[in-house]
Write a structure and sequence with these properties.
- Strands 1-9-15-12-17-10 form a six-stranded mixed β-sheet, covered by helices on one side.
- By secondary structure, it is of the alpha+beta class.
- It has one domain.
- Helix 2 packs antiparallel against helix 4 and helix 5 crosses helix 6.
- It contains six helices and 17 strands.
């Protein structure tokens, strides 16, 4: 396993979940596919051709590793920090009353929001007040979405599901970085971060490498000739995961009614619901959040 570098720091509140580390990534063809769950039925996960997945050898960090990744509040920025915490009590209470945990599909989740307009208005007010206290700039709602239970990784491009295809045909993306419009590899750190609420009834997980894009780029440039290989915002994930498959990933528990904040434009990551049996429900806002 490649030695863990000092890079993106992890900040967890006193009630934070488990934190684990593994020995890197593997191309999806090199390990048995996982079975995700939808409405009680199991489907083998399919992947995009270049998809790399976290290795399954998760373990607890040793003291030296923990010291490297633990947030020390030095040079803390929105683009070099991951935060986890519990939503305020008033927001948790409102989401409990909305009873999202009984939903078994994305449409049922949306129905609960449509059928409880007054409560949703109250949620929006409370969430906006909370976000204003931790935001360095204007923020915006991105999405209310669901993911399958027991999904080793969750990111996929639903737009690629052609007419006549079923859930079993979905192709998961694998470890990746997000990309905002007009972003370049060298401006990824300027695009802020996102906060994700876990509105489901079981823990989910953030899978992340603690390297910024600048760090990843500098590692790549020592291995290949950049005059012959153009490394861009679009292809840096492919280059890095092939060159450094043994760089470790972190697995950060994201408990129900907790949040995480992460610079997903500026790090390799994915989500996971492995081990769960119920629908994963998330609400996401984009901004420049800092705690």
């Amino acid at each position: 396993m490649k030695k863990l570098k000092s890079g993106i720091k992890i900040y967890s509140d006193h009630n934070g979940g488990t934190l684990q580390i593994n020995s890197g990534v593997i191309h999806h063809t090199q390990q048995m596919p996982n079975e995700f769950i939808f409405r009680g039925e199991k489907f083998l996960q399919q992947y995009e051709p270049e998809a790399h997945l976290p290795k399954r050898d998760w373990r607890t960090l040793n003291p030296q590793e923990y010291k490297i990744i633990n947030g020390d509040h030095k040079n803390k920025k929105d683009y070099n920090s991951v935060f986890t915490g519990e939503l305020p009590e008033n927001i948790r209470r409102l989401f409990n009353e909305l009873d999202l945990g009984t939903a078994t599909s994305e449409e049922e989740v949306f129905d609960k929001f449509r059928q409880n307009k007054e409560m949703v208005d109250e949620i929006n007010i409370s969430v906006n007040e909370f976000l204003q206290h931790i935001s360095l700039a204007p923020f915006r709602f991105m999405s209310l979405a669901t993911n399958f239970a027991n999904s080793e990784i969750v990111s996929l491009d639903r737009r690629k599901l052609s007419e006549g295809q079923s859930i079993a045909d979905l192709q998961f993306i694998g470890v990746h970085k997000d990309s905002s419009k007009d972003m370049t590899l060298h401006t990824a750190h300027r695009f802020g971060n996102r906060i994700t609420f876990n509105l489901g009834k079981e823990s989910r997980y953030l899978l992340v490498m603690n390297l910024s894009m600048r760090q990843a780029y500098n590692m790549i440039r020592k291995e290949i000739d950049l005059k012959e290989n153009e490394v861009t915002n679009k292809n840096i994930t492919s280059y890095f995961l092939k060159l450094f498959p043994d760089y470790p990933m972190l697995k950060i528990e994201h408990k129900p009614h907790h949040f995480y904040i992460a610079p997903t434009d500026n790090c390799f990551h994915d989500g996971s619901t492995l081990g769960s049996r119920s629908l994963d429900i998330v609400m996401i806002y984009l901004g420049k959040f800092l705690i």
